[in-house]
Design goal:
This is DUF223 domain-containing protein. The protein is an all-beta fold. The chain is built from one helix and eight strands, in the order ββββαββββ. An eight-stranded mixed β-sheet has the order 1-6-7-4-3-2-5-8, with no helix packed on it. It is globular, with a radius of gyration of 14 Å.
């Protein structure tokens, strides 16, 4: 599976342009990533009666063996829920990159991809390959 790239299409899928996780910049931007959508789950606040806070998503760039997590807040979950398919290859555009609090950091990557109103997530390939969950 070839998921990382530079500003030129390298996924073998015409027209898919994206950045590597390492080239993400803090703030709102028009940058894009194309990666495997490894898994997602409901995020609950255990200190406040299990209140639903949003959805946590893990994105995988298998070429560089890197995982970054994303977050979809409560107000945006209905809009994006149908686009989330574990095991698919997705392109995500127009998101916010923020520093991840050490308290909530679930990957070794220091940043978090936060879905905002203009965020677009498009499935590129469904069940393209089995993910190596040991990576």
């Amino acid at each position: 599976m070839f998921l990382s790239a530079s500003p030129v299409p390298q996924t073998g899928i015409p027209g898919v342009r994206h950045s590597t996780f390492e080239s993400l910049r803090l703030g709102h931007s028009s940058q894009s990533i194309a990666s495997g959508l490894l898994c997602f789950w409901d995020s609950l606040n255990f200190k406040k009666d299990m209140k639903f806070m949003g959805i946590t998503v893990l994105f995988l760039d298998e070429k560089v063996n890197s995982v970054i997590h994303g977050f979809i807040s409560t107000g945006h979950t209905n809009h994006y829920m149908q686009s989330l398919k574990a095991g698919s290859i997705v392109k995500v555009d127009h998101f916010e990159v923020t520093r991840c609090s050490s308290m909530y950091n679930i990957t070794d990557y220091p940043f978090l991809i936060r879905f905002i109103s203009p965020t677009i997530i498009d499935e590129v390939i469904t069940c393209a390959l089995e993910f190596n969950h040991q990576s």
